[in-house]
Amino acid sequence: MAATTTTTSTVAESEQSNAKPGLRKPVFTKVDQLKPGTSGHTLVVKVLTSTTVLQKGRSVSQHLRQTRIAECLVGDETGTILFTARNDQVDLMKPSSTVILRNAKIDMFKGSMRLAVDKWGRVEVTEPAEFEVKEDNNLSLVEYELVNVMEE
């Protein structure tokens, strides 16, 4: 009888060790807190404009998928930034819609910041937000320069 109780306790312990860790609550970031070279941001933003900059069709080959890229100006009550939408994301980024960008990262393009969501992140359309977008603080207009510091 004692042998059976020890077996059940080891089964319960092994089930606990295999349990998935709980998902972390997202920490929402504001646009003005974004810095070059950072990632893992979760933001709620409004789409102000969406401009298609690249559209490659299937005319070259049947097995290549279509590539679409759009630059969208998105923002919240602290500022705006350009978001690079790719493929299916382009359809979600309609002007005046509110979206949640999960696991977004900052890419540098010609010395300025661009927000992007790769395959590890998600773009979700949500209900309209209550905030007014601060359009006079566009972080994509700030030009950064990479400076190598030599330590002596």
TrEMBL record:
Comp. bias regions, Low complexity: 1-10
Domain (Single-stranded DNA binding protein Ssb-like OB fold): residue spans on this chain: 34-125
CDD domains from the UniProt entry: SoSSB_OBF
SUPFAM superfamilies linked to this entry: Nucleic acid-binding proteins (SSF50249)
InterPro entries hit by this protein: NA-bd_OB-fold, OB_Ssb-like
Region (Disordered), start-end ranges: 1-24
Protein name: Single-stranded DNA binding protein Ssb-like OB fold domain-containing protein
Organism whose genome encodes this protein: Cannabis sativa (Hemp)
